[in-house]
């Protein structure tokens, strides 16, 4: 039965899925673990680490470097994994470059543009060259990984860095964006889903703005690839980045999506073996993408594990995952908003803004680190801090927040455990 033919996810089905994640049976003291920190890293079903183990047991060898049986088998599994992940995000196989994580993927783009700006690449690299008078635009809700590389690229090329501000209720100000993105804009980088707020941004108006001035678009898909049906070619972005560990996959594996014709024209970022066609003592010639950007020994077992993860998600069905998370997120939003002394950060529960199952909040009078430790004593795992989005927290008027983030293996009872624990925080610390 296809995932589209299955009934919506509910508590019974989520509990069945939960059995595929042995770590969720962990107890924290006397309490059963309630894992609500999937926005930071998701847990892994057995099939993912079994796929990695099976690779090491049956096909471990270097890829693209040998003609013996194990090398051929390893290469086949490595490239099959690329095809699986590409299909999952609506991309072609040549559009996907393996990276260690999304941070590396975003830096890869920035450093390739920097190398082009320093003169690397032939005439085909001209579109990527930046200098004084050019502008790079991000937004006020970016994770540091989609902010700092662009600040640095601007500083090193003489380009100007600008950003799209937020409205008072922490949405992207699209009216301001229409004036900030202009004929000088060369790159527009933005998040699909805020890692702090869980709000889902519509890429269409931003892509249209960028295309109207000939700018490249860079999408941070770290919080959308795990939680929403994703079609990167359909979104018409030029580049995107996502991480395996947030979407049931292993750590140490992520991907850069780029339109193949762009990747082929970009100068490499890392140099060495496996990314060249010919080498002399005077110069080297480079392969087309994706190996153009995959120097050295690759993340082979991790890629195999990520392919198992996207297979698991596809079997469940991303439409079902999205709908279930929205149900859990709404329950968190309305429940937290009803607790005295708790302030939801970002758009309110009745704002009509689309969100994933991620909710940041402030318990007034109690530091988020203390909130997190108290919740942990009740077995509830959440994230505390500025979540690598310090400018956004400054805009929200806080230095840090508590963030609960659900996934397909969470149930309404998990949300209720969070709500009960948060309701007890202020009393425990004697705050009135």
UniProtKB/TrEMBL annotation:
Which biological process, per GO, is one annotated for this protein? cysteine metabolic process
Gene3D superfamilies listed in its UniProt record: Aspartate Aminotransferase, domain 1, Type I PLP-dependent aspartate aminotransferase-like (Major domain)
Keywords, A to Z, come to: Pyridoxal phosphate, Transferase
Domain of life (superkingdom): Bacteria
**Assigned EC number:** 2.8.1.7
Q: Which cofactor does it need?
A: pyridoxal 5'-phosphate
Looking at its record, which EC class is this enzyme?
transferase
Can you give the residue ranges of the Aminotransferase class V domain? Answer: 34-418
Task: Write down the chemical reaction(s) this protein catalyses.
Answer: (sulfur carrier)-H + L-cysteine = (sulfur carrier)-SH + L-alanine
The answer, when asked if Transferase is one of the entry's keywords, is yes
The protein's matches in InterPro entries, at most eight in alphabetical order, are given as:
Aminotrans_V_dom, Aminotrans_V_PyrdxlP_BS, Cys_dSase_SufS, PyrdxlP-dep_Trfase, PyrdxlP-dep_Trfase_major, PyrdxlP-dep_Trfase_small
Alphabetized GO MF terms = cysteine desulfurase activity; pyridoxal phosphate binding
- State the family it belongs to: Belongs to the class-V pyridoxal-phosphate-dependent aminotransferase family. Csd subfamily.
Annotated function: Catalyzes the removal of elemental sulfur and selenium atoms from L-cysteine, L-cystine, L-selenocysteine, and L-selenocystine to produce L-alanine.
Extract the NCBIfam families matched here: sufS
The molecule here is called Cysteine desulfurase
Origin species: Galactobacter valiniphilus
Q: Output the lineage of the source organism.
A: Bacteria, Bacillati, Actinomycetota, Actinomycetes, Micrococcales
Q: Report the gene name.
A: sufS
